[in-house]
Amino acid sequence: MSLQPALCAYGKLKRLPCRNQIDLCQPQWSAGLPAAWRARVVTPCKFKVYPDYEMPARQVVGFDVSGAICFRAYDYRLLDPYSDDDEEFYTLLTYGESAVGWRLKERGWLLYRRVESHMEEDHREEGLQWAADWPGS
Questions:
Q1: Is 28 a member of any domain?
Q2: Is there a contact between 8 and 77 (Cβ–Cβ < 8 Å)?
Q3: What is the pLDDT of residues 35-88, one digit of tens each?
Q4: Which structural domain range is residue 42 located in?
Q5: How many domains does the chain have?
Q6: What phi and psi, each to the nearest 5 degrees, are found at residue 117?
Q7: HEC profile for the chain?
Q8: Is residue 14 part of a domain?
């Protein structure tokens, strides 16, 4: 899968054409944010998108008016060829992970993480949690 901004993949809204192809879509930063938390998070006004060109993955970073990071999201998928009869192959999602984080106005981050694996009998886990900082920072 090649990342094509015009397709507005990964929860993006199509915007009017502009000079830079990467800016054709605006991330939907508040998608998935529970309504009860909307007034408590810092609103991003600028985004940077970091695509991975070797696998279906990317990271989106949002910045507030002072240039501090206030939103992060990543999504990646491991896809493998699979066959039921060793003659016809199709692509199977072996492992997928997505995370979204919103910086809170008072302090800390609200994080949502989802992990799924179709190799473990459709194993899936997801959850919302508070953290002092974005994991790995």
A1: no
A2: no
A3: 999 999 999 988 888 888 887 788 889 999 999 999 999 888 888 888 888 888
A4: 34-131
A5: 1
A6: -140, 125
A7: CCCCHHHCCCCEEECCCCCCHHHHEEECCCCCCCHHHHHHECCCCEEEEEEECCCCEEEEEEECCCCCEEEEEEEEEEEEEEECCCCCEEEEEEEEEEEEEEEECCCCEEEEEEEEECCCCCEEEEEEEEECCCCCC
A8: no
Q: What is the largest CA-CA distance in the chain?
A: 57
pLDDT, position 17: 44
Entry pTM: 0.72
Contacts of 90 (CB under 8 A, 6+ apart): 81, 82, 83
Distance CA 94, CA 28 (A): 26
Residue 100 has pLDDT above 60, yes or no: yes
- Please say if the pLDDT value at position 20 is more than 50: no
Q: Which amino acid is at 82?
A: Y
Q: Tell me, yes or no, whether 100 lies in a domain.
A: yes
Residue 49 lies in a domain: yes
For residue 54, give every residue at least 6 positions away whose Cβ sits within 8 Å of its Cβ, in sequence order, or none.
none
Tokens, residue 61: 């970073």
